[in-house]
Amino acid sequence: MSSRTARAGLALLLANVRYWFLVAPLTRVQLERWETRARTIPDPLPRELATSKLCEERFNVELAATFATLAKPSHRRDAVEAIVALQVAYDYLDRLTEEQSGVPGDPGTRLLEALVDAVRPERPLEAEHEQNPPQQYDAYVRELVATTRSALAKLPAKDAVARTAVQCAQRCAEAQTLTHLGGHSQLEAWGARDAGSTLQWQEKLAGGAASVLSLHALIAAATDIHTTSDDAEAIDAAYRSICAFTMLDSLVDRNHDIATGELNYVDLYGSGEQMCAQLAHIARDGTSKIQTLPHAPHHLVTLVGIIAYYTSALSPRSTFPPSTTKPIRDEFKPLMGPTLAVLRGWRLAKHLRAR
Q1: DSSP state of 132
Q2: How many separate helices (H) and strands (E) can be counted in the chain?
Q3: Rounded CA separation 134/261 (Å)
Q4: What do you get for the CA distance between the two ends of the chain, in Å?
Q5: Separation between Cα atoms, residue 7 and residue 315, nearest integer Å
């Protein structure tokens, strides 16, 4: 066993202990808070969207909260509050963007800008609404934003991560909106504009849309007074590669995306095999970036977990069988094997409970 694998295995063990004993209880409290709040939204449509999203995407929030296992103990509660509120806002705004893609004025775009408000304290909360009177559900969005901002303001290295967090939030909002509203030429033009990245435009788009993960990592880093702006930039650079692996969801949801007309990243490559071959190449680049970060083993475990999460949803009967992801999984032996086994077991247990 390599020293990298041993350190990553230890990081996984410590993260699990910290999560279940220290983070999970705090996360449950915050989830109950937002579930209660969502039920008070006066307008039936956004209320249904908010409550259903919290129910359907609860695991997303719990997964996001695992970043708080890296938080300093004295600021872990604040980190959980900020991360949970931000993830709930992201999931809700994503659904609103999808639902309102045909509404004049692109209200989904305006709503996603709340992500930037959440990490940019100097911007007045009402600034984006001065020319667009808030709708009834805006109060829910504003409360999520205000909670994220308030918790983030308590963290000792908030100023060190602020500039990078704003850039990351803007990238996330733009990419996520384009995946719902943009045509192929717009998607390619947006991804191709960053000439300094080693990623292709497809990975930039996918990584940008999932950059909320980078924001969670930055929030955790902001709990450490020794975090610098250079650290923040290095974290975001690594997570631009890490977040690109969320496009593996397109292998799982291929038939659904075709039926609904939603963006499927496989179409941007020509085949699932081509997409996975490119992601295997990115794995090497991403791993090298991860090694420069504080808590590098934990971030490596995060990347392996993302890959295993989507791969564990594939079966031999899937449009794309598990063998499609073999080039990627081979990059992370032997750590990938047990991680994949755990997630397959989790999916089986979840299926049995549902029955």
Answers
A1: S
A2: 19, 0
A3: 30
A4: 39
A5: 30
